[in-house]
Design brief:
Blueprint lengths: L2 H13 L8 H18 L6 H12 L21 H9 L6 H27 L4 H7 L10
Length: 143
Amino acid sequence: MTRSVSLTLLLEEAIQPRADYFSFSQLYPALIVTLQHLIIVGDDCWDVSAIKNLITGIENQKIEFQIKSGKGEKGIYGTNPIHGALYKISKHIDTEDRLKLLGHIINVAFQWRKEIEALSEHQSLSDHDIKRLNIATYLSGPV
C-alpha cells in the first residue's frame, strides 16, 4: 500500500467524506486544524504520527483526491455528517472552538464505531444497535 493510499484511508476513517470529496480543497485549512485537535483529544485511539503525516500530506498536497463539484448533501444531516460539519464550519469566522468540538466528535464517533464492532464480534446486536449502525438512520429525509 502506498503512502498516499494509507493517508487517504486514515482521512476516510476520520472524516468519512462524501464520495465526490465535495469542496474538499476549500476545507483544507479547517481540516488541518481539526486534525491537530484530534491529535490532542485522541485518547490513544489514533496513531499520532500517522495523523501528523496526514496533516503534512494535506499541506503539501501529497494526497490525491478525486474532487468533483457534484450535487448532494452538504449539511450535517446526511450520510457524511463530519464532512458536512467541516463544510458548514468553514463558512463561519469564529471557527476555532467549532473545529475543536469537531475533533472531539470525530474521536467519540470513532470510539463508538469500534465498541459496536467489538460488541458484534462477541454477541448478537440488539435491534437498537443495528439501527444505530445503519447508514440510512442518518439520512435527512424518509428512506
